[in-house]
Amino acid sequence: MYQISYFFLFYIIGIVLFVIMLGILFLCGFFNKNMEKAEPKTTLDFLLEQVNNSHNDKEILDSVMREFYANFYNISNTNKNFDKWLNLIQAITLLDYMSVEQAARFRDDLVKKNPKIKSDIEHSIGVSLKYRENKKIKR
């Protein structure tokens, strides 16, 4: 009725599909493990994105500053988000949103609240202000 090659064709197709499905499952498991290792975004990441994408929009920057003062005004250098915090204050003072005098007051307020990390705060804000001034000179 049917030739034997007809049955072999279905067995071969079945084996190939089985191997492909195993490969797909293996790859999905591999990428799933990589996804679990990625750090979840924190509020500091979100605030940093808002600052970077604000295009000096005063309303956005005011809301970022309110959130910053409400939740992230005080931090210790042992906090796991300390580097993100420094990047955020650097990004805030890098924008034209703050004048140099306002940035100096911001730095002084942060130093009063976080005296143990005074040098880190002063360095971060100083670098951003220096970069901002160099950028203005080049224009």
Structure characterization notes:
It is a single chain. The chain has 139 residues and is mainly alpha-helical. It folds into 2 domains: 38 residues; 96 residues. It has 6 helices and no strands. Helix content is 76%, strand content 0%.
- The average pLDDT is 84
Structural class: mainly alpha
Q: How do the SSEs run, as a string of H and E?
A: HHHHHH
Low-confidence parts, pLDDT < 50 over ≥5 residues? none
Number of helices: 6
Helix content: over 70%
Count every beta strand, where a strand is a DSSP E run of 2 or more residues.
0
Count of discrete structural domains: 2
Biggest pleated sheet:
none
Strand content: under 5%
| Envelope shape | elongated
The radius of gyration over CA amounts to: 27 Å
Distance between the termini: 86 Å
Summarize the structure.
The protein is mostly helical.
Keywords:
139 residues; mainly alpha; 6 helices
In terms of topology, how is this protein built?
Elements: H1 4-37, H2 43-52, H3 58-71, H4 82-94, H5 100-113, H6 118-138
